[in-house]
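Bug: token stream looks shifted between consecutive jobs. Job 1:
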Amino acid sequence: MTPEKVLEVIGVYRRFFESCHVPKVKLSEKDFDKFQTISFNEKDKKAIMAHCHQMLDTVEEFVRDKRMDKCFRWLGFIQGCLLCGGMYTLNELKNHSRPNEEK
């Protein structure tokens, strides 16, 4: 995935979070350890989505700094949370990351 494509995908997720009025909140690793991923409750899901929203700014920094390996790991984490939270289907997430000519 090109840096330009990553920025495009970040834009998709940023618009999604903003349209759902998801705030930006940074959670600690300790906070994350409290979540039961198999049975997200709504409060947990909102907290995780808020954390993912704030992560987008850092992913943009990784792209600017050409730290693409780290960028891909963080983007994958965000996409995993979006999938587990029921925000997008696997096919939708895959389509977000595909080159535009493959869609």
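Job 2, same session, no restart:
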Amino acid sequence: MVVGVSGGPDSLCLAHLLLGLRERYPLAVHLAHLHHGIRGAEANADAAFVAEIAHRWKAPLTVERIDVPALAKERHLSVEEAARTARYEFLARVARAVGAETIAVGHNADDQVETVVMHWLRGAGLAGLRGMQPLSPMPGAEESGLRLIRPLLSTYRADIEAYCMEVGITPRFDRSNLDTTLFRNRLRHELLPYLEEYNPNFRELVRRASIVLADDYDYLRAATESAWTNTVLEESETYVVFALAPWRALHPSLQRGLLRSAVQRLRRSLRDVGAVHVENAMEIARLGHTGQRATLPAGLELILDYNQLVIAEAGHEPRPTSGTYIYMGTDSVPVVLPGQTPLPGTPWLLETQLIPRDELVIDPKRNQDSHQAFLDYDAIPTSMMLRRRKPGDRFCPLGLGGHEKSLTEFLIGAKVPRALRDRIPLLVAAEQILWVCGLRPDERAKVKPETRTVLHLRFIRHPMAEESA
């Protein structure tokens, strides 16, 4: 296990505790100290102090120096953010070098409270308000399998300092922690003490709330992952496409979660997705009209297409993905014959008419329009309805000589996006599938030489319905 040691009380307490466990557990502890190249002689003294401690405690140590101000300039980061990034990158390098899978850092309960309040002031959602986690993938090295642990996250600073005093540890003091021009320090020394005047137990309330919010976040994340599977039509390194109707049918919390997930998948280095961006995008996605766009962080845009929602690079032009597919907005609807049957919640309308065979102008065998079908009305046993698929649905696709096939297998073979498979309308009579709408009629319902009356069905996009869909 690699332990980050700055020389302050938190990291020294943590290192001392973990080194003390070596006699009871097969634990190899490797200390790591990063010189940030900021505080001159004081930083040099910190590094020397940690080296002396490591020697005294008989622990291996890696020390490295990085010019954090230069890194901040190079990566266009604040010095605070550059220092954080440099620390995690350094600890990951050390872990890989010594063959460690786990990295331990000394964040404590006061740090957690400060983090949660800081995130709240910046408008964070659940992900930010849950604060830091006791166990998480290593930031910036998520694919490496490295784990980051924070064993002291529920222990307050006062208890850590008392422990150091009890075991005879004299930590280094970092004067930069008193600099109230830095946001976190100002929050620590000014805002939190002020809030404690209203409630002396404020810190503990925030810490406990972060635990509850972490559980809520985990539950919501699982629900969001499920919703992702059911709504995403396409995903690549540069764009994510959602089926609009299924996305709009979700609870706003899941809608919001999906937009955040899309941004974070496309911009893996992005830690926070601003609430203002997300809410503006939500409004357009839920209430906007085709062609509208919303700005998202890191050069991304939300693009509202006629039946899909695209998250992509600014200026991206959506290509037709699900536009050719007819889809249901409800579980079922009876078919009006002859006449028009709107599909509620969608821009689609089914027109039906009965045509005597000898008056039919179009040869059904040469029909090239997937949005229309010609069926043998004499072979239809009863009234018809449109419904979604059910488990076990089978039909005889036209052209297979009457051979039966699983509907699910057919939809997969037809490359229908997973998010739309449950929404493709099925024209059904007496539980017999007559037409997988927009894709293939059933062989048994095709127009035959002896057919007397032809049922003509045609789906059209209804302009008024499209505006409200």
